[in-house]
Amino acid sequence: MRKALVFGLITLIANQVFGQVKNDSNHIPRVNSAQTLIASKDGNLLMAAYGEVHFNQPFGSNMRNNGMLDVHRQVLLFGYRFNKKTSFITEIEIEHIKEVFLEQAFLNHEIKPWLNFQAGLMLIPMGIVNEYHEPTVFNGVERPVIDNVLVPTTWREIGAGFAGNLTNIGLRYQLYAVNGPLGYDGEGQLNGAKPIRGARQKGSQVTMSHPDFAGKLTYFGVKGLDIGLAAYLGQTESSLFNNLSLDSTHLVAQADSSSVGVQMIGLDFRYQQKKFQARGQWIMMNLSNTNQYNGFVGSDLGTSAYGYYVEAGYDISSLFKLKQRLVPFVRYSSYNTHASVNEGQGVDASFQNDIVTTGLSYFLTNSMVLKADYQRIEDGNNKVSNTINAGVGYWFR
Question: Would you identify the CATH topology of the domain 2-396?
């Protein structure tokens, strides 16, 4: 059944894409809220906002569960344009009413139309949702599971680098040096279930032993189609490298055991043609030095993990004579954070999950959406969980 669903989605998407795409060197790449503010010509002080309110109701044949209502996030964006070439963007997020985070805070300076220098707290360009997570730009009440387990959305770190659009060849590039996740700070922060999610430093009193690399190339030269190739290469940071005496073989070995190498690559695509839409994502993560790390902190990290999803949707508003878009969609996702493990380490089957999500997005306006979906998750132990979700989302500037 799962293979048939994946094959059917891929066949449908391939027929739509290859049957209708046309080369278009003037196609403009998709932009998120921060990029919208950078490109704005509306004045010096710029403002935008987005947010989501969610309802989640788990259910099962032999179990009753309470539902949960949550103002999941309210985000305020502010930008200031110092002149035609230099601007500053910041994003303040309030999660679950009581948690306040700084999600972005970076300088953008245009050196050339195709070359921008950026520095500050920035989103890691990996996958789709980590950079494009405004609720009106993705289907489903909750963000895709892959963008929680493998790409620890919202993943942001402090760094600097270059970004720009080469419009004549339809290519966007992003190249950054950033601090890595904090894998050890008195105790281990990495685990097998969600390898690096708990290690995000989020720009708060960041520990840095060595810089990591984050980069992405996005091709947008075909009308309606964006294809991304991303990479993240580096090591997790550790507090044990601070005030480390290099004369102590024991302390050096201990510090080395507290850091893990991270190599992540990602492929993604987004396609929109008239009423048809599709997207997909594949993430592969390799982790090195995990045997030493697990032994030192008592964790259960594997040596590799992967995840992917494929999704298709279609606007059926004309069937009901609606002026607003009504988009049913279906998404199949799969991931395994114990794809491979160290010799002698047991594989946890609960870390392998297959997810089917299907639902509706009803756009009251282009900036306001009502969502509802059903999600079924089955892990490697054949344990099944079911959830009905509903929510409202908005994005405006």
Answer: Porin (2.40.160)
